[in-house]
Design brief:
By secondary structure, this protein is mainly α. Helices cover 77% and strands 0% of the residues. α7 packs across α10 and α11 runs antiparallel to α12. The radius of gyration is 24 Å and the shape is globular. The protein starts with a helix and ends in a 7-residue tail after the last helix.
Length: 320
Protein backbone atom coordinates (compact mmCIF):
# COMPACT_ATOMS: atom_id res chain seq x y z
CA UNK A 1 0.00 0.00 0.00
CA UNK A 2 2.78 2.43 0.88
CA UNK A 3 4.60 1.69 -2.39
CA UNK A 4 1.38 2.32 -4.32
CA UNK A 5 0.85 5.68 -2.64
CA UNK A 6 4.45 6.73 -3.39
CA UNK A 7 4.10 5.71 -7.05
CA UNK A 8 0.86 7.62 -7.42
CA UNK A 9 2.34 10.74 -5.88
CA UNK A 10 5.33 10.51 -8.22
CA UNK A 11 2.98 10.07 -11.19
CA UNK A 12 1.26 13.30 -10.19
CA UNK A 13 4.43 15.23 -11.06
CA UNK A 14 4.31 14.69 -14.88
CA UNK A 15 0.53 15.06 -14.76
CA UNK A 16 0.83 18.46 -13.09
CA UNK A 17 3.54 19.45 -15.56
CA UNK A 18 1.31 18.64 -18.54
CA UNK A 19 -1.58 20.43 -16.84
CA UNK A 20 0.54 23.55 -16.29
CA UNK A 21 1.59 23.61 -19.96
CA UNK A 22 -2.00 23.26 -21.14
CA UNK A 23 -3.20 25.96 -18.77
CA UNK A 24 -0.39 28.32 -19.75
CA UNK A 25 -0.87 27.85 -23.50
CA UNK A 26 -4.66 27.63 -23.75
CA UNK A 27 -5.31 31.08 -22.28
CA UNK A 28 -3.07 32.61 -24.93
CA UNK A 29 -5.25 31.26 -27.73
CA UNK A 30 -8.14 33.49 -26.64
CA UNK A 31 -8.75 36.25 -29.22
CA UNK A 32 -7.31 39.57 -28.07
CA UNK A 33 -4.80 40.06 -25.29
CA UNK A 34 -4.22 42.05 -22.14
CA UNK A 35 -2.27 44.78 -23.96
CA UNK A 36 -5.28 45.53 -26.18
CA UNK A 37 -7.53 45.62 -23.12
CA UNK A 38 -5.25 47.99 -21.20
CA UNK A 39 -4.82 50.36 -24.14
CA UNK A 40 -8.56 50.37 -24.78
CA UNK A 41 -9.34 51.16 -21.14
CA UNK A 42 -6.84 54.01 -21.12
CA UNK A 43 -8.32 55.46 -24.28
CA UNK A 44 -11.86 55.24 -22.89
CA UNK A 45 -10.77 56.97 -19.68
CA UNK A 46 -9.21 59.81 -21.69
CA UNK A 47 -5.68 59.09 -20.50
CA UNK A 48 -2.81 59.98 -22.79
CA UNK A 49 -0.92 57.02 -24.17
CA UNK A 50 2.77 57.77 -23.88
CA UNK A 51 3.70 54.17 -24.76
CA UNK A 52 3.09 52.13 -27.87
CA UNK A 53 2.15 48.47 -27.94
CA UNK A 54 5.76 47.24 -27.91
CA UNK A 55 6.51 49.30 -24.82
CA UNK A 56 3.46 47.88 -23.03
CA UNK A 57 4.61 44.35 -23.85
CA UNK A 58 8.09 45.08 -22.47
CA UNK A 59 6.65 46.46 -19.24
CA UNK A 60 4.42 43.42 -18.76
CA UNK A 61 7.12 40.97 -19.80
CA UNK A 62 5.09 39.69 -22.74
CA UNK A 63 7.78 40.47 -25.30
CA UNK A 64 9.88 37.51 -24.16
CA UNK A 65 9.68 34.09 -25.86
CA UNK A 66 6.78 31.98 -24.69
CA UNK A 67 9.00 29.31 -23.13
CA UNK A 68 10.82 31.96 -21.09
CA UNK A 69 7.50 33.27 -19.77
CA UNK A 70 6.47 29.73 -18.85
CA UNK A 71 9.77 28.99 -17.12
CA UNK A 72 9.50 32.22 -15.10
CA UNK A 73 5.92 31.36 -14.09
CA UNK A 74 6.83 27.83 -12.96
CA UNK A 75 9.93 29.08 -11.15
CA UNK A 76 7.76 31.55 -9.26
CA UNK A 77 5.47 28.72 -8.10
CA UNK A 78 8.19 26.21 -7.19
CA UNK A 79 10.90 28.55 -5.86
CA UNK A 80 9.11 31.66 -4.60
CA UNK A 81 5.75 30.04 -3.83
CA UNK A 82 3.75 32.62 -5.78
CA UNK A 83 1.48 32.52 -8.81
CA UNK A 84 2.59 36.00 -9.77
CA UNK A 85 0.74 39.30 -9.90
CA UNK A 86 -2.29 40.41 -11.85
CA UNK A 87 -1.52 42.32 -15.02
CA UNK A 88 -4.65 44.47 -14.74
CA UNK A 89 -4.84 45.06 -10.99
CA UNK A 90 -2.44 45.52 -8.13
CA UNK A 91 -2.73 42.26 -6.21
CA UNK A 92 -0.90 38.97 -5.98
CA UNK A 93 -2.86 36.02 -7.32
CA UNK A 94 -2.50 33.81 -4.25
CA UNK A 95 -3.91 36.60 -2.07
CA UNK A 96 -6.96 36.94 -4.31
CA UNK A 97 -7.39 33.15 -4.49
CA UNK A 98 -7.23 32.82 -0.69
CA UNK A 99 -9.70 35.67 -0.36
CA UNK A 100 -12.26 34.05 -2.68
CA UNK A 101 -11.60 30.40 -1.88
CA UNK A 102 -13.98 30.27 1.15
CA UNK A 103 -16.93 31.23 -1.06
CA UNK A 104 -16.26 28.47 -3.59
CA UNK A 105 -15.53 25.94 -0.83
CA UNK A 106 -18.77 26.73 0.98
CA UNK A 107 -20.79 26.49 -2.22
CA UNK A 108 -19.15 23.21 -3.23
CA UNK A 109 -19.35 21.57 0.19
CA UNK A 110 -23.01 22.50 0.64
CA UNK A 111 -23.79 21.19 -2.87
CA UNK A 112 -21.98 17.91 -2.16
CA UNK A 113 -23.73 17.54 1.20
CA UNK A 114 -27.13 18.18 -0.38
CA UNK A 115 -26.41 15.80 -3.25
CA UNK A 116 -25.32 12.96 -0.97
CA UNK A 117 -28.18 13.54 1.45
CA UNK A 118 -30.69 13.20 -1.37
CA UNK A 119 -29.06 10.59 -3.60
CA UNK A 120 -27.77 7.91 -1.22
CA UNK A 121 -30.92 7.30 0.89
CA UNK A 122 -33.25 7.56 -2.11
CA UNK A 123 -31.08 5.28 -4.25
CA UNK A 124 -30.78 2.65 -1.51
CA UNK A 125 -34.49 2.77 -0.71
CA UNK A 126 -35.41 2.51 -4.41
CA UNK A 127 -33.28 -0.62 -4.74
CA UNK A 128 -34.68 -2.24 -1.60
CA UNK A 129 -38.27 -1.38 -2.65
CA UNK A 130 -37.75 -2.13 -6.32
CA UNK A 131 -40.67 -1.38 -8.67
CA UNK A 132 -42.63 0.26 -5.90
CA UNK A 133 -44.23 3.70 -5.94
CA UNK A 134 -41.20 5.28 -4.26
CA UNK A 135 -38.89 3.60 -6.79
CA UNK A 136 -40.79 4.95 -9.78
CA UNK A 137 -41.03 8.41 -8.21
CA UNK A 138 -37.29 8.48 -7.44
CA UNK A 139 -36.33 7.38 -10.95
CA UNK A 140 -38.65 9.94 -12.52
CA UNK A 141 -37.19 12.76 -10.44
CA UNK A 142 -33.67 11.59 -11.30
CA UNK A 143 -34.41 11.66 -15.03
CA UNK A 144 -35.81 15.19 -14.71
CA UNK A 145 -32.72 16.23 -12.75
CA UNK A 146 -30.38 14.80 -15.39
CA UNK A 147 -32.28 16.54 -18.18
CA UNK A 148 -32.35 19.98 -16.51
CA UNK A 149 -29.21 22.11 -17.00
CA UNK A 150 -28.01 23.88 -13.87
CA UNK A 151 -27.50 27.20 -15.63
CA UNK A 152 -31.06 27.17 -17.00
CA UNK A 153 -32.53 26.37 -13.60
CA UNK A 154 -30.42 29.09 -12.00
CA UNK A 155 -31.62 31.68 -14.49
CA UNK A 156 -35.25 30.62 -13.97
CA UNK A 157 -34.87 31.00 -10.21
CA UNK A 158 -33.43 34.48 -10.70
CA UNK A 159 -35.99 35.70 -13.25
CA UNK A 160 -39.47 34.30 -12.57
CA UNK A 161 -39.74 34.84 -8.79
CA UNK A 162 -38.70 38.45 -9.40
CA UNK A 163 -41.41 38.85 -12.05
CA UNK A 164 -44.22 37.03 -10.22
CA UNK A 165 -43.59 37.88 -6.57
CA UNK A 166 -41.00 40.66 -6.65
CA UNK A 167 -38.48 38.43 -4.86
CA UNK A 168 -34.97 37.45 -5.83
CA UNK A 169 -32.22 35.55 -3.98
CA UNK A 170 -29.76 37.66 -1.97
CA UNK A 171 -27.02 38.96 -4.28
CA UNK A 172 -24.75 40.66 -1.76
CA UNK A 173 -22.28 38.47 0.06
CA UNK A 174 -22.91 38.00 3.77
CA UNK A 175 -19.98 36.50 5.67
CA UNK A 176 -20.75 33.54 7.91
CA UNK A 177 -18.95 35.14 10.86
CA UNK A 178 -21.09 38.27 10.51
CA UNK A 179 -24.51 36.66 10.00
CA UNK A 180 -24.71 32.84 9.84
CA UNK A 181 -28.40 32.76 8.87
CA UNK A 182 -27.95 35.43 6.23
CA UNK A 183 -24.96 33.56 4.83
CA UNK A 184 -26.96 30.33 4.67
CA UNK A 185 -29.87 32.12 2.97
CA UNK A 186 -27.51 33.37 0.25
CA UNK A 187 -25.88 30.00 -0.40
CA UNK A 188 -28.90 27.73 0.03
CA UNK A 189 -30.51 28.15 -3.40
CA UNK A 190 -27.26 27.98 -5.44
CA UNK A 191 -26.21 24.92 -3.43
CA UNK A 192 -29.58 23.27 -3.97
CA UNK A 193 -29.30 23.80 -7.72
CA UNK A 194 -25.79 22.33 -7.85
CA UNK A 195 -26.55 19.58 -5.35
CA UNK A 196 -29.80 18.33 -6.90
CA UNK A 197 -28.16 18.25 -10.32
CA UNK A 198 -25.36 16.01 -9.06
CA UNK A 199 -27.77 13.93 -6.94
CA UNK A 200 -29.70 12.74 -10.00
CA UNK A 201 -26.87 10.74 -11.53
CA UNK A 202 -25.59 9.58 -8.15
CA UNK A 203 -29.03 8.30 -7.16
CA UNK A 204 -29.38 6.22 -10.32
CA UNK A 205 -25.90 4.74 -9.86
CA UNK A 206 -26.62 3.98 -6.19
CA UNK A 207 -29.82 2.16 -7.11
CA UNK A 208 -28.11 0.16 -9.87
CA UNK A 209 -25.20 -0.92 -7.70
CA UNK A 210 -27.44 -1.82 -4.78
CA UNK A 211 -29.65 -3.96 -7.03
CA UNK A 212 -26.59 -5.81 -8.25
CA UNK A 213 -25.31 -6.42 -4.72
CA UNK A 214 -28.72 -7.53 -3.46
CA UNK A 215 -28.69 -10.34 -6.06
CA UNK A 216 -25.41 -11.79 -4.76
CA UNK A 217 -25.31 -15.21 -3.09
CA UNK A 218 -24.00 -13.92 0.24
CA UNK A 219 -26.99 -11.59 0.48
CA UNK A 220 -29.33 -14.53 -0.10
CA UNK A 221 -27.44 -16.40 2.62
CA UNK A 222 -27.93 -13.50 5.00
CA UNK A 223 -31.66 -13.48 4.25
CA UNK A 224 -31.85 -17.26 4.76
CA UNK A 225 -30.30 -16.89 8.22
CA UNK A 226 -33.30 -14.82 9.22
CA UNK A 227 -31.43 -11.57 9.64
CA UNK A 228 -33.51 -8.44 9.75
CA UNK A 229 -33.75 -6.33 6.61
CA UNK A 230 -31.91 -3.45 8.21
CA UNK A 231 -28.96 -5.67 9.15
CA UNK A 232 -28.76 -7.21 5.67
CA UNK A 233 -28.89 -3.86 3.88
CA UNK A 234 -26.72 -1.77 6.19
CA UNK A 235 -24.13 -4.31 7.31
CA UNK A 236 -23.77 -6.44 4.18
CA UNK A 237 -25.07 -4.68 1.07
CA UNK A 238 -24.23 -0.99 1.40
CA UNK A 239 -20.48 -1.37 1.96
CA UNK A 240 -19.89 -3.44 -1.19
CA UNK A 241 -22.37 -1.43 -3.21
CA UNK A 242 -20.57 1.81 -2.35
CA UNK A 243 -17.33 0.99 -4.21
CA UNK A 244 -18.49 2.06 -7.73
CA UNK A 245 -20.44 4.90 -6.14
CA UNK A 246 -17.21 6.30 -4.69
CA UNK A 247 -15.93 6.57 -8.27
CA UNK A 248 -19.00 8.53 -9.30
CA UNK A 249 -18.62 10.81 -6.29
CA UNK A 250 -15.01 11.46 -7.27
CA UNK A 251 -16.01 12.20 -10.86
CA UNK A 252 -18.55 14.74 -9.67
CA UNK A 253 -15.89 17.06 -8.27
CA UNK A 254 -14.85 18.44 -11.71
CA UNK A 255 -18.53 18.82 -12.58
CA UNK A 256 -19.15 20.79 -9.39
CA UNK A 257 -16.09 22.95 -10.13
CA UNK A 258 -17.38 23.73 -13.61
CA UNK A 259 -20.89 24.27 -12.31
CA UNK A 260 -19.66 26.64 -9.62
CA UNK A 261 -18.20 28.91 -12.32
CA UNK A 262 -21.66 29.31 -13.87
CA UNK A 263 -23.65 29.43 -10.63
CA UNK A 264 -21.32 31.98 -9.02
CA UNK A 265 -21.83 34.33 -11.96
CA UNK A 266 -25.61 33.87 -12.00
CA UNK A 267 -25.99 34.49 -8.25
CA UNK A 268 -23.19 37.07 -8.01
CA UNK A 269 -21.11 35.01 -5.59
CA UNK A 270 -17.55 36.39 -5.34
CA UNK A 271 -15.80 33.03 -5.57
CA UNK A 272 -13.04 31.59 -7.72
CA UNK A 273 -15.41 30.87 -10.59
CA UNK A 274 -16.44 34.50 -10.86
CA UNK A 275 -12.81 35.56 -10.48
CA UNK A 276 -11.83 33.39 -13.43
CA UNK A 277 -14.62 34.73 -15.65
CA UNK A 278 -13.64 38.33 -14.87
CA UNK A 279 -9.98 37.50 -15.55
CA UNK A 280 -10.92 35.91 -18.88
CA UNK A 281 -12.85 39.03 -19.87
CA UNK A 282 -9.79 41.16 -19.06
CA UNK A 283 -7.33 38.64 -20.58
CA UNK A 284 -5.49 38.66 -17.25
CA UNK A 285 -3.30 35.64 -17.99
CA UNK A 286 -1.68 35.06 -14.57
CA UNK A 287 -5.03 35.04 -12.76
CA UNK A 288 -6.59 32.55 -15.20
CA UNK A 289 -3.48 30.37 -15.03
CA UNK A 290 -3.41 30.37 -11.24
CA UNK A 291 -7.10 29.56 -10.77
CA UNK A 292 -7.10 26.82 -13.43
CA UNK A 293 -3.93 25.24 -12.07
CA UNK A 294 -5.39 25.17 -8.58
CA UNK A 295 -8.66 23.62 -9.82
CA UNK A 296 -6.73 20.98 -11.78
CA UNK A 297 -4.47 20.17 -8.84
CA UNK A 298 -7.50 19.65 -6.59
CA UNK A 299 -9.06 17.26 -9.12
CA UNK A 300 -5.82 15.26 -9.45
CA UNK A 301 -5.45 15.01 -5.68
CA UNK A 302 -9.11 13.98 -5.45
CA UNK A 303 -8.51 11.08 -7.85
CA UNK A 304 -5.67 9.84 -5.64
CA UNK A 305 -7.90 10.07 -2.58
CA UNK A 306 -10.67 8.09 -4.30
CA UNK A 307 -8.25 5.28 -5.15
CA UNK A 308 -7.13 5.09 -1.53
CA UNK A 309 -10.73 4.94 -0.31
CA UNK A 310 -11.23 1.79 -2.42
CA UNK A 311 -8.90 -0.20 -0.20
CA UNK A 312 -10.73 0.81 2.96
CA UNK A 313 -14.13 -0.16 1.52
CA UNK A 314 -13.15 -3.53 0.06
CA UNK A 315 -10.55 -5.73 1.83
CA UNK A 316 -10.05 -7.64 -1.45
CA UNK A 317 -8.41 -4.57 -2.99
CA UNK A 318 -4.69 -4.43 -2.26
CA UNK A 319 -2.16 -2.19 -3.95
CA UNK A 320 1.41 -3.46 -3.99
Amino acid sequence: MRAYVIRRILLMIPTLFILSVLVFMSVRFIPGDVVDMMMQQMMLSGALLDMDREAFERVLGLDRPIYVQYADWIAGILVRGTFGESLMHEFTIEQRILGRLPVTLELGLLAILIGWTIALPVGIYSAVRRDGVADYAGRSVAIIGLATPNFWLGIMVMVYPAIWWGWSPPLRLVRFVDNPLGNLAMFLIPSLILGTGSAAGLMRMTRTMMLEVLRQDYIRTAWSKGLRERVVVVRHAIKNGMIPIVTIIGMQLPILVGGSVIIENIFNLPGLGRLMVLALQERDYPVVQGVNLMFGSVVIANNLLIDLVYASLDPRIRYR
